[in-house]
Design a protein that fits this description.
Elements: H1 3-11, E1 16-21, E2 25-30, E3 33-39, E4 46-49, H2 52-58, E5 64-66, E6 75-78, H3 87-104, H4 113-116, H5 125-129
Antiparallel strand pairs: 1-2, 2-3, 3-4, 4-6, 5-6
Helix pairs in contact: 1-3
Length: 139
């Protein structure tokens, strides 16, 4: 498996951006928050967020370690892309990472928020009640 496969998986998800950080890391983000990181130098490593249960299961496997600096946030790292995880499994894990990050975003930064907001717009004051009312009652 290659970096291009990881890029294809990540870019298929809504609202994803990518950029290079720290010199050699290709970072995939949603709403400004990282969900997958791939080192562009050989051996290409891939790191992603996971659930506490999955974290425990994955770090038991040879070739997968708690991600340096990010393990406390439940990130794991595959030491070489494709050595332990096949495409189907990696794709599911990256999608879960994406969903975990999106769930923590404010609704305004979630990828689907932009699509929903115009249809949920409140009607203007004039279209709701016609003319403006004065503050006086019964006079």
């Amino acid at each position: 498996m290659t970096i291009d496969v990881v890029r294809t998986i990540c870019r298929a998800l809504p609202g994803v951006t990518e950029d290079i950080k720290w010199g050699t890391d290709l970072v995939f983000s949603v709403g400004g928050k990282m969900f997958t990181v791939v080192n562009t130098e050989v051996p290409n490593t891939v790191a992603f967020k996971c659930t506490p249960e999955t974290f425990g299961e994955l770090i038991e496997r040879d070739g997968i370690i708690p991600a340096p600096y990010m393990a406390r946030a439940m990130w794991v790292q595959e030491r070489t892309v494709g050595d332990v995880l096949d495409r189907r499994e990696l794709e599911a894990l990256i999608k879960t990472s994406y969903e975990l990050v999106v769930a923590k975003l404010p609704k305004s930064k979630r990828p689907t928020a932009a699509a929903r907001s115009p249809s949920r717009k409140r009607p203007s004051r004039q279209s709701r009640g016609g003319a403006r009312r004065s503050g006086r009652r019964g006079r």
